[in-house]
Amino acid sequence: MRVAVADDIPLFREGLVLLLERFGVEVVAQACDGDAIVREVRDHKPSIVILDVMMPPGDYGGLTAAERIHAENPEIGLLLLSGFNSTQFALRLLACDGTGGRGYLIKDRVTDPTILRDVLKTIDDGGVSVDSEIVKRVMNPKYQRGILSALTSRELEILELVAQGLSNKGIAKQFKLSGKTVDRHVSNICDKLGICDDEENTRRSIIILKHFQANHLCDTRCESPCTAYLR
User: Fold this and answer.
1) Which of 30, 79, 106, 153 has its CA 20 to 30 A from that of 163?
2) Is 49 in contact with 15 (CB distance < 8 Å)?
3) Rounded distance, CA 107 to CA 82, Å?
4) What residue ranges of the chain are covered by domains with CATH 1.10.10.10?
């Protein structure tokens, strides 16, 4: 696994690099702003890029850089580390389709280094992992919208776990179901949400995006009124 890291706080960035190296991850590049990490990615072609959302240039330079990197290299995995529990930021990341995995973690909730290691493995495998706090917030029934009304309660539970990055095998273990049963539930979710039969990782990414679109909660960083991702 070849990783590039971008964060405008040197102490955090260097500590993160040390942690990654302890896990046996090869850190091929570092940068302190969005423009610099885009250049480093062009030069070093990492398999995953870890970016802070809030860094130069501008207010959300890391998020913008992630979108630029994806536009040039959709196969590169992206992990956004943020101090904000923002559904808008997560949605923009999930809107990036492609073969590269994606992840969104809230910095102060990464209390165990193994969380970061496991999320990086998910991304390296082409999967998607979103902080569970965001998933719980958007799963609040008060905010559920019509797009999910056709799903059963079990399908909604499985959708939540898919959004957290669990594989079908992991979901089957948690609910004590057979793998075939979970596969059928996921297939039913795709049918009800109008998601075509495609590569597994791409299909799961679309499932998660549909989920967030249906349950998106506006926060202080959303447009007012927020319409960007509820079309």
Assistant:
1) 30
2) no
3) 6
4) 137-215
Given a cut of 90, whether residue 45 has pLDDT beyond it is: yes
CA distance 47 to 205: 18
Domain at 137-215: CATH code: 1.10.10.10
Nearest one of 111, 57, 101 to 79, comparing CA atoms: 101
Spatial separation of the C-alpha atoms in residues 103 and 131, rounded to whole Å: 8
Beta carbons within 10 angstroms of residue 122's beta carbon: 21
Buried b (16+ CB within 10 A) or exposed e, 126-144: bbbbbbeebbebbbeeeee
Looking at the chain, the domain(s) classified CATH 3.40.50.2300 span 2-131
* Angle of CA points 216, 159, 151, to nearest 5°: 90
Are the beta carbons of 66 and 51 closer than 8 angstroms?
yes
Q: Which of 189, 101, 94 is nearest to 150 (CA)?
A: 189
Beta bridge partners of 48: 3, 77
Per-residue tokens: 32: 């302190």
Which CATH class for the 2-131 domain? alpha beta
Chain segment 184-213, per-residue pLDDT in tens: 888 888 777 766 555 555 566 666 666 665
